[in-house]
Amino acid sequence: MTELLSPLGQKIFDNALYPMTFKKGEVIFREKEHVDQVKLIKQGLVKLSHNQTSGKPLIIELLDEDNFIELSSVFNGRTHEVSAIALENTLIHSIDIQTFFTIYYNNTSFNEEINRKMAGSNKFLLNQLVARTIKRLPGRVADVILYLYELNKKSLTFNVPLTRLEMAQLAGTTKESLIRTLTEFKNDKIINLDGRNLTIVSLEIIQTLSRFG
């Protein structure tokens, strides 16, 4: 995304950023912490989770390389609304929030791309909220599979970066219900699942389950 910066903007960004490495499972920031830096994923995969009033975490979104983490909190309130945790060894480029805003307001193309990213994230979160409210469990699990399919560049076979519990948190269900549904999908020859290796056998059925919930 930084390739959209002007030469001066790129120079300011490069001089201001500093790299941070996080091992798999390490917390990048916690919910309710003050936002004083903007973080860009250069390598790796990050999950965003939110603690419900029940105390059970709900996975909100997964972010891979070239994505800024939780831009909404950068622009709103300056307090993290979610926690960010590395799902694999991850390299982050961090930049002071005031420097980020200097770049943001003085680079039109970069500004527009940031706004587009935030709009896309807001649309995704709205769709997630609607799905968890009105869709039955098979539709929600199909949504998770399609989400991972898109994250893996539409490969029909991929390694699931989440545990079964984390998949359940993304689907808004229990681990037991998720496992039961995945087993049903496997028995119906909709997917193959071996540990964390998942193959979509019938993309059409998964898409139909997602669409009609």
Offer a few descriptive terms:
Jelly Rolls, alpha+beta, Arc Repressor Mutant, subunit A, 3-stranded antiparallel β-sheet, 46% helix, 213 residues, 8 helices, 2 domains, 4-stranded antiparallel β-sheet
Termini gap = 34 Å
Shape: elongated
Overall CATH class of the largest domain? Mainly Beta
Helix amount: 40-55%
CATH architecture descriptor of the largest domain:
Sandwich
Oligomer classification: single chain
Rg measurement, Å: 18 Å
Number of domains: 2
Beta-strand residue fraction: 15-25%
Average pLDDT score: 90
Describe this structure in words.
- The protein is an alpha+beta fold.
- It folds into 2 domains: about 1-125, Sandwich (Jelly Rolls); about 135-210, Winged helix-like DNA-binding domain superfamily/Winged helix DNA-binding domain (Arc Repressor Mutant, subunit A, Orthogonal Bundle), CATH 1.10.10.
- The chain contains 8 helices and 10 strands.
- It has a 4-stranded antiparallel β-sheet. It has a 3-stranded antiparallel β-sheet with strand order 1-7-3. It has a 3-stranded antiparallel β-sheet with strand order 8-10-9.
- Helix 3 crosses helix 4 (about 110-135), helix 5 (about 135-150) crosses helix 6 (about 165-170) and helix 6 (about 165-170) crosses helix 7 (about 175-185).
- It is elongated and about 55 Å long.
- The two termini are about 35 Å apart.
- The mean pLDDT is about 90.
Task: Summarize the entry for a quick read.
Helices cover 46% and strands 23% of the residues.
